[in-house]
Design a protein that fits this description.
- This protein is 46% helix and 6% strand.
- It is mostly helical.
- It has one domain (2-77).
- The longest helix has 31 residues, at 43-73.
- The radius of gyration is 24 Å and the shape is rod-shaped.
- The termini are far apart.
- 7% of the residues are buried.
Length: 96
Amino acid sequence: MLLVWKFDRLARSVLTFERAVRGLTGCGIEFASLSESVDTTTPMGKFTLHLTGALAQLESDTISYRVRAVRTATSPARAWRPPGGAGASATTGMAA
């Protein structure tokens, strides 16, 4: 038996999650979660398992998107500069 804390700790992508679960069940290994009571041998349990995997991938993709957005927004090439150049006053826009 493979015991995990939560189903989404097994994998972050639906494809990897599905392959892992199929590999485990193909080898006769049961799969269980400590924090989620889902019977993975029933149709509803299998659905819940796949839904949890999809939500884990959504979470991972959203985090990646946000990190890329922050890096793009804060990159030196995109840094805000006051009108009139680097030596200009932020309030007047004119060089000091």
